[in-house]
Structures are given as structure tokens and as C-alpha cells.
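U., I forgot to send this yesterday:
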Amino acid sequence: MEICKAGRALTGERAAADDMALIAHYARGTMTPEAVYTFPVLLCDNEIDRDFERFDEETLQELSALFAGKTGISDHEWRSRNQVARIYKTELLRQPEKRTLAGDGYVALKAWAYMLRSEANAPLIADIEGGIRKEVSVGCSVRARICSICGRPVGQDGCAHVPGQVYDGALCYATLCGAADAYEWSFVAVPSQRGAGVTKAKAREETEAATGAGASGLCDLVKRAADSGCFAELCTLQKEAALGREYLAALRAEVKRLGLICGREIYNALAPETERMEAGRLLELKDALERQAAKKLPLTVQLPGARETVRFDGDAYRV
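Result:
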């Protein structure tokens, strides 16, 4: 399966002699340090990203070998005229003291890329130096996406878990396993992984609000909750929110049922509107429909009242 994940590029530097020897493997002509612009790139890491996916360390190690020599482009447009740089070496950076949301020690795939110091590349070099072009994304393929909750392939073999949801206090995410191929890396505007791209020192912090921000906002919210020790409280709130959604669904279904009892025309008028109503309005409508339904189908009993006698012929029990 094809995967696009993000990284970041770092400030450029003049190529050392050892770097020139590695670059020579990819250049047909003789290159000099003055003619080459090099810069490091953090391609991807093992942190849970905006898609609620992560690479494991073994897969990052496999990608390290696969990305050597891969070309750098823009926006994943696979055109020869869009090639701007090439990776000439890679390594894994390990920070065991830094813990990921999954609880592992942080590991990142770092690469070094080079481009020619030409007139055509001057604007791009200036953008990298100025911090304008810093986010990157990798294009690769992996053999499996494994659910963190049940250990099965996501959505297959009986896995019913949804990445991004919380199950019994555990965040569900997919672990990308088994690097099959590496295609390219691209300069992009918004990468999937928050730590991916070109930076001078430290990756910039995300500033978007978590509420109303979709999957990326929820992932940021989960990350901040874990960092602040409030993860259990967040899980409780998510469970309560799920119960609230179930209650609203049941309330809407009951209003539709009562509307159908009161008449097909009433049901047809109410059914679409109930999906947009909040709980308060639904409760008011439910009470009104219950009164209307009681008039149309009054409650009847088969037993007489106090001090009353009736003749029993069995007609009330006939179907």
C-alpha cells in the first residue's frame, strides 16, 4: 500500500570532502563543493501523525536504505522537470529519553540531500535558507497497517477498530510495517507528520486549535492530554460524548416512531428535521407527539374498574 508521510528540511551547508565522495556516486561529472548545496532533511519518524499512523523503528531502518539516492520533487508531482534535489546519505536519529504518544523512544529518519548551485535553483535555495521551504513529505509503500488495539491488519481479519478512537483508555492507531519501496520525497505545504520537514533547530509547534480541526486537531488534543497527565480524563470525556450521541440517536428514532403513529404526513414532515434538532427541541416534540398519539390510540384495559362487573364472552381476546 502506498503511503505519503511528512518530514522537514534543515538549514543548508557546504559539502564536506566525505559528502562529495558520496555525491560522486550519483553525479556523472566532477563536482566541487562550491558547486553543490547540501542540506539535511528529517524525512519521517515513529510518532503518531495526523492520520493516526506511525512507522515502527524496523520500518524506518528499512526506509533508510531505500531512500538513499531518491530524488526530491515538489508536491509529489512525478515529472522530470520537477526534480530539485537528491538524497546521498541517510541515518536513524534516536532519542530514547523523548517518548512518543505510543510510549516508545523517539526515532527519526534523517537524510542529507544535495542540489546544484545554479541560477534556476537560487530561489529554492533562498527559500530553504529563509525557512520558507521547510516541510517535506515522503512517498513510499509498506506491506501492512497493523491496529494498535487488536494487532490485526486495520479493517481486516475481524478488526473493527477505528484509528483515532479511544478504546478502554487506549488510543487506536495504525503501525506501518514492512517497507516495500521508497519513491521520492517532496516539498509540501502541510505534511502528515508534524515533525517532518526542513528546520534550523527545532520543529515548529502546531498552532491550530484542536476543536473543530478534524483528525489533526484530535491528534494534537490527545498529545497534549498525554503530556499533561490528563489522558484518563480525556478518555472519560470521549466515552461520555459517545453516550450522548447514542442518546440523541435513540431520541430521534423515538420521535420518528411517534410521528408515524400520528400519521404518515406528520412523519414525512418531521423525519428530515429531527436530524438537525438538538436534545431540548426533540424532548418537547416527543412530549407533544405522545399526547397526540394517546388521543389517536388511547390505552384500553380488559379488566373492569373498581366495583364494576362485566359480561365476559371472550371477544376481547379474539385476534
